[in-house]
Design brief:
Number of strands: 14
Strand content: 25-35%
CATH class of one domain: Alpha Beta
CATH architecture of one domain: 2-Layer Sandwich
Strand order of the largest sheet: 1-9-5-2-3-4
CATH topology of one domain: Nucleotidyltransferase, domain 5
Order of helices and strands: EEEEHHEEHEEHEHEEEHHHEHEHH
Structural class: alpha/beta
Largest sheet: 6 strands, mixed
Number of helices: 11
Length: about 350
């Protein structure tokens, strides 16, 4: 499912994040997907997240340099859409033919999405019978403002890139982190720099997506305020000690636990909402990724909080890579789930 798709099979995935950019190119072989090229570069969030045309040349220049330095060999690109730019929901619809369903969704879209239909791009996919009413079906609906997509198209075109697909980051996360054969119910938590993307999937299909405005930067800021140190030193403390109660006399733990618990509270609300709609779907585990997933004892704290198994997501789990690169790739895996998921799209 994507907001825009051009049908090309030779392309790379581009994740434009608030603190870094990631690119991944795969190649298809008779035995499966193989990692061909990848790269990452830090970027100022005021540039990467800006909607101002004045900032597009700056972002384009960084992307251009990253593509060249990574050895990317195609001009076709699948681009991730951050959660704060895309609206995704699951709705119940009458059982209709594909054509009638499309017409009904277009007719009702204005009452379903937050932006007017005439300035939005929408996409949808039927999921199956509704758990609330077996006479209806569930439909996954996504929308994004036209001006955002068109701005990205123009910006990428300025450096000679051809955008073949725009896809919500949450869908790319699922493709990268959930094994293709899974039939269980799982939650993905990408605790990024600015926000946390939450996705609950049943048999690999998203049923609930949320963006929570709490991320690693807010955790670090809480440590800075409580400990009375500058942000760079606070970041060092947080990355070194995390949620270790016995580290530094528990000072870092006490400084950040309030912010972490605010995040966990929002996650708990999402679990309860999901369980109310899908009472027969038992949540089996949580897969964590993003910068905060590397904090000492954060995954363990999450596991204890919800009584669930918590695993660290492996962005490279569904692809092969050259021997001797495993340690290097796993050390940066938390950055690459979206880009790798985009690169795994079936056009």
């Amino acid at each position: 499912m994507s907001i825009l798709s051009g049908g090309q099979t030779d392309f790379f995935g581009l994740d434009i994040g608030p603190s870094s950019l990631q690119v991944v190119q795969l190649k298809n072989t008779p035995t499966g997907r193989v990692l061909d090229h990848y790269g990452t570069v830090a970027i100022d969030g005021n540039v990467s997240m800006s909607d101002s045309k004045a900032d597009w040349p700056k972002l384009a220049a960084v992307i251009d340099q990253l593509v060249k330095s990574s050895g990317i060999s195609t001009k076709n690109v699948a681009v991730g859409i951050p959660s704060n730019k895309v609206f995704t929901t699951v709705i119940d619809m009458d059982k209709l033919s594909q054509g009638d369903l499309a017409q009904t969704i277009r007719y009702q879209a204005d009452s379903l999405i937050p932006t007017p239909l005439d300035v939005s791009k929408i996409d949808w996919a039927p999921l199956g019978p509704s758990p609330a009413d077996p006479q209806k079906i569930e439909v996954l609906l996504s929308s994004v403002p036209n001006d955002y997509v068109e701005g990205r198209l123009d910006m990428l075109e300025s450096i000679g890139l051809n955008s073949v697909a725009f896809e919500p980051n949450s869908f790319a996360l699922v493709r990268a982190l959930v094994p293709e054969s899974t039939a269980t119910t799982q939650m993905l938590l990408e605790v990024g720099n600015v926000s946390t993307d939450l996705v609950i999937v049943i048999a690999g299909v998203p049923r609930l997506t949320r963006s929570i405005p709490i991320g690693l930067s807010l955790i670090i800021r809480a440590a800075s305020t409580a400990l009375g140190v500058e942000l760079p030193q606070a970041a060092q403390f947080v990355h070194k000690f995390g949620l270790g109660k016995d580290k530094l006399e528990g000072q870092v733990y006490n400084a950040i636990i309030g912010t972490v618990d605010n995040l966990m509270g929002e996650v708990d609300k999402s679990i309860k909402f999901f369980s109310s709609r899908y009472p027969n779907a038992k949540l089996e585990r949580i897969i964590m990724t993003g910068g905060a997933s590397t904090l000492p004892e954060f995954p363990l704290y999450t596991a204890n909080r919800f009584g669930l198994n918590v695993e660290i997501g492996n962005a490279w789990g569904n692809v092969s890579f050259p021997q001797g690169t495993q340690n290097e790739l796993l050390s940066v895996s938390y950055k690459f789930a979206v880009a790798c998921g985009l690169a795994q799209r079936n056009q």
